[in-house]
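Subject: sequence -> structure tokens, single chain

Hey, anyone have a minute? Need the predicted structure for the following. Not urgent.
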Amino acid sequence: MIPEDVVEEIRARADLVEIIGEVVELKRSGKQYKGKCPFHEDRAPSFYVTPDQGFYKCFGCDESGDVFTFVMKRMGMDFPDAIRYVGERSGVEVREVSAGDEGREDPLRPYYEANAFARTFFQETLADPEAGAEAREYLRGRGIDDETRERFGIGYAPDDWGALRAAAEVHGIARSVLVENGLLVESERAPEPYDRFRNRIIFPIEAVGGRVVGFGGRILGASGKGAPKYLNSPEGPVYHKGEGLYALGWNRHAIRKEEVALLVEGYMDVVALSAGGVNHAVGVLGTSLTVEQARLLKRYTRRVLLLFDSDEAGLRATFRGADVLLAAGIHPSVVTLPEGEDPDSVIRSEGRAGLERYLDQAVDVIDRKLQLLEEKGFFRSLDRKRTAVDKLLPTLRATADETLRDMYVSRVAEKTGVRRDTLEREIQAVSSPVGRGEGRSAFNPRSGAGSGRGREPGSGRSKGRLRHPPPDLGAERQLLLVLLQARDWLDRALERIGPGEFQNPVYQAIFQALVDEPELTAPPPGMAPEAVRTMEQLLGHPEELEHTQRVFEESIASLRDRSLRVREVELRKALNAAESPEEERELLEELQRLQKDRPGRWNVVRRERPAD
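Reply:
Had a minute. Here:
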């Protein structure tokens, strides 16, 4: 049996709106949420959820109950299974007690326990009168008071190679678990595993239910040679950086109340905003925004304000993230802060009222793109207008909301002078569902021209699929050399291709790493050894490429032409197997569009580029 106190703890901690919201589209109505009942055909919303009292009720079919009742009725579980399910979602361990109960041990339990111990160790070190003095002074200087520090569980990792390791051994925590969690690092050059986090402010990363899955560490003082300013836990048994958002568990209720989330880049931004009274912010975890993170955010809001840096790197991250949000059905707007400022500095210098002035001036993502293109003179000539359209198409393709996409198309047509039907043909020519690719990439397949509908990364090797034509791997390597030597060309590449165009898995991994982190200067942690070796060779290429623009255009053309050839073969095969006149007509129309784009070779579009 499950003890009653455990049941009550789960009931109290469960997020009823979140659990029901995965099945029912809920909209806020005062203190309640309403939607269409999942238990009968509901023409008008008659299903109400009251989170403060922990129950739901349908005034159409009279179904009602608490979180356990909903899970039992909707998912067909019995009561104990419903308790376990909700307990897992709420971060409460469910342990049954009965005579002869052997107890089903959670295989991940040692990893969660090790992370919980590490959080306590870091917090106690921060609170230590001597060991944590400098770290506490640093946090006070950043406007982080004790209440905020405790709320987020912030700690300090001492400047010691074995402090955490020694403390964990006293408590009987296995080294292997600490290594797998990324708290200890093994090296051939060290006789024993050593602490990953040293002399760093530590930010525990929690799942929505409250369990610690990983850590982020900000170096105290200036970073030394080779030491990154921020260091995050690597992927492990319980931590997957592309699946969670920093502080979502703490701030989800505020996000629902405000009906909007602020998406920022770093831990310190989230914590500083909270210290300033702004509690509806979440942070990406050291990577570009992923499809999984966007879907997670959608449980709580349909509106997001992006508060990334306003420099070139920040704008790239802003627009990549916006496209992922649009594909998930979330409406993003862009907040522009003064040059050199970030959310942390603004909230400290201008307070909540000052920050809210910038939030009130947030601009829809398509309008912000149009503003920047106009400022840079992209609408002054036909050639640059063509480039502007290419830069806008990824956002148009990504937008899942048909009404919003229609408005976007109208705005772009008005600004560029390109007819609506022309834009719509370009959108449809290479549109593909977002999130179908492999892995946890933030890359949106809609943004890569030439990816082809229905084609997934690596699909050419899948069972039952047509073989790709012989790969031109020279083009893949040449393109990577260009991108590694001139990072400002990456966005131009992303407007026209995606990782799926790379057939060599090593080159594909390197390109994906650049998509996730455009400023990479070394192979990222977790990259396969063969990809690491190849990337290091490319980074150490002794000669600069000549005629960069020509090499770039020819490489892109080769990859796109290869994708179009694959799609042409697929279309012809589908055409032979078409089962209805309507299907045949659609396939013929797509084949004609493709042949118009590819009259034998891809036409290289000449654009204004920086001088070689």
